[in-house]
Specification:
The protein is mainly alpha-helical. The longest helix is centred in the middle third of the chain and has 28 residues.
C-alpha cells in the first residue's frame, strides 16, 4: 500500500492503510494459501480460493476493528513490549479477525458439505 499509494481504506480509523494495500494483501495471501493448501482442497478449488480471500478480508477487518477501539479509547499504543509497533495486540489484531473468520468458515463448511467427520479429519491430519 505504501509503495503504490492511492485512496485510503479507512482514513478516520487507520490513516496509513490504503485500498491498494488491502487489495494486494488479499491477492497475495489468497494466492500463497491456495498454493500451499491445494492438495487439501483439490476437489473444491473454487471454495478454497473464495474461503482464503474471505479470511484475508477477515484479517483486515480484525486490524481495522482494533484500530477503531484504539481511536475510540484514545489509546495511542496497546503496549510497550514491542517499541514502535503498538504492542502485542497490534501484532495479533489481524489474527483475531482470522480466527473468528476461520471458525465461521468451518461451521459453514460443515453445514453445507455435511460430512463433518471427514472435513475435520482433513484439517487435523
Amino acid at each position: 500500500g505504501k509503495l503504490i499509494g492511492g485512496a485510503k481504506l479507512a482514513p478516520t480509523i487507520s490513516p496509513n492503510k490504503t485500498i491498494s494495500g488491502a487489495f494486494f494483501g488479499i491477492l497475495i495471501s489468497t494466492s500463497l494459501l491456495s498454493i500451499f493448501f491445494y492438495d487439501l482442497f483439490i476437489n473444491h478449488t473454487l471454495l478454497m480460493v473464495i474461503s482464503f480471500a474471505l479470511l484475508s478480508v477477515a484479517s483486515i477487518i480484525g486490524d481495522l476493528f482494533a484500530s477503531f477501539l484504539k481511536r475510540h479509547f484514545n489509546a495511542t499504543e496497546s503496549g510497550n513490549l514491542i517499541p514502535g509497533h503498538g504492542g502485542i495486540i497490534d501484532r495479533a489484531d489481524s489474527l483475531i479477525g482470522v480466527t473468528i473468520g476461520a471458525a465461521l468458515f468451518l461451521f459453514i463448511l460443515i453445514i453445507f458439505l455435511g460430512d463433518y467427520k471427514n472435513i475435520l479429519e482433513s484439517f487435523l491430519i
